[in-house]
What we know:
Distance between the termini: 64 Å
CATH superfamily of the largest domain: Aldehyde Dehydrogenase, Chain A, domain 1
Number of strands: 22
Radius of gyration: 23 Å
Strand order of the largest sheet: 15-16-17-14-13-19-20
Number of helices: 15
Helix content: 25-40%
Structural class: alpha/beta
Shape: globular
CATH topology of the largest domain: Aldehyde Dehydrogenase, Chain A, domain 1
Amino acid sequence: MLIMGQNSGRGLQEFLNYIGGKWTKSKTGKTFQVSNPANPSQILGNFQLSGREDVQEAMKAARDGLKRWATTPAPQRGKILYRAARILDELAENLSKTLTMEEGKTLKESEGEVRRAIDIFLYYAGMAPNLDGKNIPSAHQRTFLYTKREPIGVVGVMTPWNFPIAIPAWKIAPALVCGDCVVFKPASLTPLISHYIIEALDKASLPPGALNMVTGPGREVGEEIIGSPEIDAISFTGSTEVGHRINRKIAAGKKFVRIQLELGGKNPAVVLPDARLEDVVPLIKSSAFGLTGQACTATSRLIVHESIKDKLVKRISEEAEKLKVGNGLLPGVEMGPAVSEDQLQKDLDYIELGTREGAKILVGGKDGRKDPETHGFFVRPTIFDEVHKDMKIAKEEIFGPVLSVMTASNIDEAVELANSTDYGLTAGIYTTNLSNAIDFADRVDAGVIKINKSTVGLEYQVPYGGFKQSSAQTFKEQGQEAIDFYTRIKAVYVGY
């Protein structure tokens, strides 16, 4: 397997921060290790346990780099993204294996995510020549009015562990093409795959300061990014709890900082009697248990019409029982481990809580560590029946392969149940009745509606963002709308 980066000379590779165009060690002199969740004894590398001084240095580098990068013509910025995409494409096979070893998802899932990251770079590279403003008719004679887009400035990017190459790509690529400089903090569970994005852009001749990466704990690195006087915008994807903390800190500051917060989800999938069950079953299976349920867009609530509930749940339960759990690099494995022991314990705690709340386990609920044939943070896909909307397993984000089944007697009750949480990220419906499908799309309070499709899976050219507690609801991510977050609009009046 190809390993890029700097070798520590101590047998285990040491990966460095990237500040001002240089690979540097943390000023703390400390490192932390990242291991394979399918085999925790396999250490993947040492990473910098950075502190506040490292962030301050990165912020200064970004501010200094902004003078050059913001004035680089956008088409030239796009060419650098094209070159980075080609570098990533050449390494796609090895990157996919690295992603599986670091995060735990299956190799097929990793291949899809790596390809998505490459496509995102290509998409925003292609957008570079079209970052124009508008010509606007004036109400006065001999007056020319136009608007122009300018970079917002220095952007702090903080990303989660569950899509550790795709989410950084869809934040970093539009930021760079718009002329912003970035200080990037990857999730501490998955910094290795993010490291390769930096290497690709470095090899693509990105100028110093345009992109900086600092690894380390959120309580120091993340907090310093948020509170830095150099910061102009923050783009964060992660838990709703942390999102609220960021929002409060930004609001309490003395500087106006633009924010983009994409947070948790508790996504419903409604199945009506006219749905084609042969199509529904595999889609629910992949939506609930694919990616080990570790996706904010995963289906975690199955709302089924009472007339077909028993038949559908029986078929999905049979599929869940057959699902092969294991190391994602092995052939035939359909679901990998939880990303960490803490996440595994959270899954198991919620499974126990669901039982105490009175829900009925149909399948799963097992701690994979008790299986002598496995090593790692494995849990079986779990389905709860007889779940009511007031139960915690029906309201709170678990972020694991746990599906809660609820019953509805009609479309109105299904919509009410779908809206019965504080989240509003994605929502799905399975039906062949066009009226019910459009009615559902109109009435459900979610940022993304999927009709006869998996709730997981987003196209990069389409705007993405949630409602309610799933988002700050300021600026959308992805698509052309992402450009709005990373630029500011200047209006120019020309008299002649």
